[in-house]
Amino acid sequence: MSDTISLVILAAGEGKRLKLNCPKALAPMAGRKLVDFPVGAALGFLSEGNIEGNITLVLGHGATEVKNYINSKYDDVNTVFQENQLGTADAVNSYLKSVDIKDDKSDYTFVMCADTPMIGEEDLTRLYNIIKSKELDALAATFLAKDPFGYGRIVLSKQGFHIVEEKDANEETKEIQEVNSGLYVFKSCFLRKEIKKISNKNQSGEFYLTDIFEEDKNVKTECFENEEIFYGVNDLQQLQQSERFIRWEHMGKLRDEGVRLIDLSHTYIDLDVEIGVGTCIYPNVFLEGKTKIGADCLIEAGSIIRNSVLHDSVNIKAYSHLEDVIVRSHASIGPFGRLRPGTDIGAESKIGNFVEIKKSKLEKGVKVSHLSYVGDAEIGEESNIGCGFVTCNYDGKNKHKTEIGKNCFIGSNSQTVAPVEIGNDCFVASGSTINQPMEDGSFAISRGRQVTKPGLAKKFIKK
Ligand code: UD1
Ligand code: CA
Asked: Is 141 in the pocket of ligand 1 (CB under 6 A)?
C-alpha cells in the first residue's frame, strides 16, 4: 500500500524585518507571494509522485489575510491557527492538535518553512526516498553554510547528532559550518510521540522543533550540496536577492527555449509569464502577472506589460504601458503607447505614439497613429483615426460609448461626444465635433467657418 503524506508549512511569523505592510507569507516574489513557493513545491511533490496527502499552513500573524489568499487560490490547502508564536515545535503542535489521532492516516509528515522559496519538489522527493529506504524516524535537510550565523548548528558525535540554535551555541559550536535548513521529514507517529517531550528551557524560551533530534534516536541528516536552495527571506535584502535568483532561473529557461533576451540582468519577468519562441525582449522591460506573449514578438526598451495577452508577431515599441489588454497578431503599439484595462487591439492595427486607449475594442487594421484618447469605444475594421482625436466619453458623472464603423476616416483634431454612433464608410472632416449619429457612408463637418481679412495682420503683430 502506498504512503499518505502530510506537509506542514510554518507561516505564523510576523516578518518584522521585511518592513512590508502585509504578513510575511504574502510578501511579493516575482509576481507571486512568498507562501506560493512552499505550497507549490508541496503540491508538485504530491502530484509528481502521484502520492496521496494533504497540505496545511500554520498561520498566526495576519492569519485572516493569508487564509483568504490561500482559499482564493488553492482548493486543497488547509490552514490552522497558532495562537501564540511559542516556537517551531509549538507551531507543528498546533497542526497536530487540529487533526484527531484517529483521523490521522499519514505515514510521513514534512515540515517546511514558509520563507524559503527556492526549495523545490525534487528536494522533498529526495528526503522522502531516503527516510523510506533507510527506515528512519526523522531526517533533517542540512547544508554547509558559508556564513552559519543565525542557523541551528549540527553538532555531530559518535552516537549521532543534535541541533544547537545560535542563541544557545558556545564559541566552539558557532564555528560549525553544517547547519539546519528548517526542512524535515518525520514518521508521523514518531513526530506525535516525541514532540510532546520538547521543553522551552533554552535562551529564547521557545519550543524548538529541532530538539526532537537526539543522539539515541533513529534520525539522520541529509546534507545538500547546494546552499542556495535554502536561502531564507527575512529582510528586504534577502527578498530582493531571492527574487533576483528566481527571475534569473526563469529567464534562463525562457532563453533556452528560444526567447531572445538582449540583457537578462536588466529584464524583469515574473514567473507566470509565458513567451513564445522567436520573441525578442529589449532591456528595461517588465513583464508582470499572468502575461502571455506569442511567438516572434518584439518588445522594446522600457515597456511595462501587466496581465496581458499578446498574440504572435506583435511589436511593442519603446516605453509603452499595457495593463489587462489583448493585442492581436501583427499589431504595433507605441512608442509611448498606453493601453488601459479592457482594451482589445485587432490584428494588424497600429497604435502610434502618445495614444491612450481605455476599455475599447478596435477591430482588424485600425490606425490611431498619433496623440489621441480613445475610451469606451468600438472601432470597426480598417478605420483610420487622425492625429489628436478624442472620445469625450465622460460627462462628469457617467461614461458613455462611442461607436465608429468600418472603413471610416476621422480627420485630425476631431472629437466625438459620447454617446454617439458613426456608421460604416463615414468621413469626418478634421477639426469636427461629432455629437449627432452618422448613417453609413455619410460625411460630416462641424467647425467654425474661416474669415480672412487681407492686410489686417499688421494690426495684431506687435514688434
Ligand atoms: C529555524 C531553526 C533553525 C534553522 C533555521 C533555518 C528552530 C528552533 N530553528 O530557526 O535550526 O537553522 O530555521 O532557517 O526551528 N514559526 C511559526 N511559529 C512559531 C515560530 C516560527 O510558524 O512559533 C515559523 C516562522 O514563520 C518561519 C519558521 O517557522 O516560517 C521558522 O521560524 P524562525 O523563527 O524563522 O526560525 P529560525 O530562527 O530561522
Ligand atoms: Ca527564519
From this structure: no
Q: Say if residue 223 is in the same domain as residue 248.
A: no
Tell whether 459 is covered by a domain. Answer: no
Instruction: For residue 201, give the nearest of 170, 165, 176, 172 by alpha carbon.
Output: 165
Mutate to test the pocket of ligand 1, among 96, 98, 113, 235 (most ligand atoms within 8 A of CB): 113
**Could you tell me if 29 and 117 lie in one domain?**
yes
The residue to mutate among 59, 88, 195, 209, having the most atoms of ligand 1 within 8 angstroms of its beta carbon, is 88
What is the residue type of 327?
A: V
Closest CA to 49 of 92, 108, 96, 101: 108
Q: Residue 268 in 3-state DSSP?
A: strand
What separation in Å is there between the alpha carbon of 35 and the centre of ligand 1? Answer: 15
Whose CA is closest to atom 8 on ligand 1? 208
Residues within 5 Å of ion ligand 2, judged at the Cβ atom = 232
Range of the structural domain that residue 203 is part of = 4-230
Residuewise pLDDT in 10s, the chain (463 residues): 699 999 999 999 888 899 999 999 999 999 999 999 999 999 999 999 999 999 999 999 999 999 999 999 999 999 999 999 999 999 999 999 999 888 888 999 999 999 999 999 999 999 999 999 999 999 999 999 999 999 999 999 999 999 999 999 999 999 999 999 999 999 999 999 999 999 999 999 999 999 999 999 999 999 999 999 999 999 999 999 999 999 999 999 999 999 999 999 999 999 999 999 999 999 999 999 999 999 999 999 999 999 999 999 999 999 999 999 999 999 999 999 999 999 999 999 999 999 999 999 999 999 999 999 999 999 999 999 999 999 999 999 999 999 999 999 999 999 999 999 999 999 999 999 999 999 999 999 999 999 999 999 999 998 7
Say how far apart CA 324 and CA 339 lie, in whole Å: 8
Q: Does 454 reside within a domain?
A: no
Residue 151, ligand 1, Cβ within 6 A? yes
Q: How does strand 321-323 pair with strand 304-306?
A: parallel
Q: Are strands 361-362 and 343-345 parallel, antiparallel or unpaired?
A: parallel
Q: Is the CB of 182 under 6 A from ligand 1?
A: yes
Residue among 96, 290, 307, 89 nearest 207 (CA): 89
Any atom of ligand 1 within 6 Å of the Cβ of 13: yes
Nearest ligand by distance to the CA of 88: 1
CA of 105 to the centre of ligand 2 (A): 30
**77 and 119 housed in the same domain:** yes
